[in-house]
Design a protein that fits this description.
Two copies of one chain form a homodimer. The first copy, chain A, is built from five helices and ten strands, in the order βαββαβββαβββααβ. By secondary structure, the first copy, chain A, is an alpha+beta fold. Chain A folds into two domains: 95 residues, Alpha-Beta Plaits (2-Layer Sandwich), CATH 3.30.70.580; 137 residues, Alpha-Beta Plaits (2-Layer Sandwich), CATH 3.30.70.660. The first copy, chain A, is globular. Chain A starts with a strand and ends with a strand. Chains A and B meet through β4 of A and β4 of B.
């Protein structure tokens, strides 16, 4: 048996999310089904992060155990051929140590949130960005974002369905910048609470619109209360960028 | 009556092309139908370039005559609301002179062709790039592309359905460069023959794969013979970037 480490790109649009569900398609199921058709083996494919419905991945790290002897090249080519037409692509495959775990070995996760900030709605990037038609104040958003960096109780930015043991997390980075007609938010932490990035971006959008002052981000954080939350940004603009390992 | 000048972004994927057709949806029809629902007027929407099925536009210039009094802002907002769910977005609207013509006043057209050059197929950019899984020699492609720049008889790179009076065109620019895991081809000319960009990119891909030497681009050009053509690149990677006016 070999434990394989894969990086996977996917378009979250048609999926109920990463995790296998009874009521709809998932990225995990698409990969597990492709593997079973290829090898006859039923094996769980475990990811660094379990993204929500509609959330994309540029490079999700996953692992899976395969009994059959196979090369890394053939495993990647076979999965990419059989996973079609699901919009999932295996970018890299390499053997990993037996105790390497995509989720539990991961010491850092990075997300990108893309806001299309122009008057006209997206035609080419539909489902891939959050469209906000009024000019956002990016400097104010960056100032508000800076107040969330560090070790805090992020209860305000946590879904009621969050299964994390503790609401205390260390946010290493939350940068906001312009790129063309997009406003990009980049977030890095060892781990995130459920809906944390989308909640933070939702509040930052209020700052960008001038509805919140930047320091209201700190007030929301200090409230430690889900009711202090503005709202979640939609999944369309969210990308899992990278999982970091020691 | 006001002649309006619009710039329009669209995803060519679901369309038979720009031009209105009996047998399927077109970008032109989507815009004309939206205008009619908004104003009750049936007016042709004329574009700088009539893109093929599956070809996208970042900013197509078009014009349309509207009798009803309306502001530029309301025209844009109304069209964007009514054109849905078609993936078409009106970026800008401004009044134009009565004799300004999106097609006949245009003195320059720019196209971008995106090749995703990595082993794994696209998941996020499916339908938006041409996937080539073997490493392309970009320097050889650039050398081959340079041989097509200038005033030439482009019969080799012309569709049999081309309606242009003459196969002689002046290609101002044909640049090839790397950007991340993409190879980008940028083309500029006053006008292009039907399928010219896709034909040139198809041949350049043969150079990139090492199947043609760069100077075989010149031989193909000098043959003035459609049979000397490698093949057309698929429409997925082609974008109309900009129309230039005096």
């Amino acid at each position: 048996m070999t434990r394989w480490r894969l990086t996977v790109e996917y378009d979250g649009g048609p999926f109920m999310g990463w995790q296998r569900q009874d009521h709809g398609p998932s990225v995990q199921q698409a990969l597990e089904d492709a593997l079973e058709r290829m090898t006859g083996e039923q094996a769980p494919v475990i990811a660094a992060g379990r993204t929500d419905a509609g959330v994309h991945a540029l490079a999700m790290s996953v692992h899976v155990d395969v009994v059959r002897e196979i090369t890394a090249h053939r495993l990647r080519e076979g999965l990419n051929a059989l996973v079609r037409p699901a919009p999932v692509s295996v970018l890299t495959v390499e053997p990993a140590a037996d105790d390497w775990h995509a989720r539990f070995s991961c010491v850092g996760r990075r997300y990108l949130y893309r806001i299309l900030n122009r008057r006209a709605p997206p035609a080419l990037e539909r489902g891939k960005v959050w469209h906000i038609g009024v000019d956002l104040d990016v400097a104010a958003m960056a100032a508000g974002a800076a107040m969330l960096v560090g070790r805090h109780d992020f209860t305000t930015f946590r879904s009621v369905h969050c299964q994390s043991d503790s609401p205390v997390k260390t946010l290493d980075r939350l940068d906001v910048r312009h790129k063309g007609d997009e406003v990009l938010v980049e977030a890095a932490a060892r781990s995130f609470l459920h809906h944390q990035v989308r909640s933070m971006v939702g509040c930052l959008s209020l700052v960008g619109r001038g509805q919140w002052r930047p320091d209201e981000m700190r007030k929301a954080l200090e409230a430690r209360n889900r009711a202090a939350l503005g709202f979640n940004a939609p999944p369309d603009g969210l990308y899992f960028v990278k999982a970091v390992y020691p």
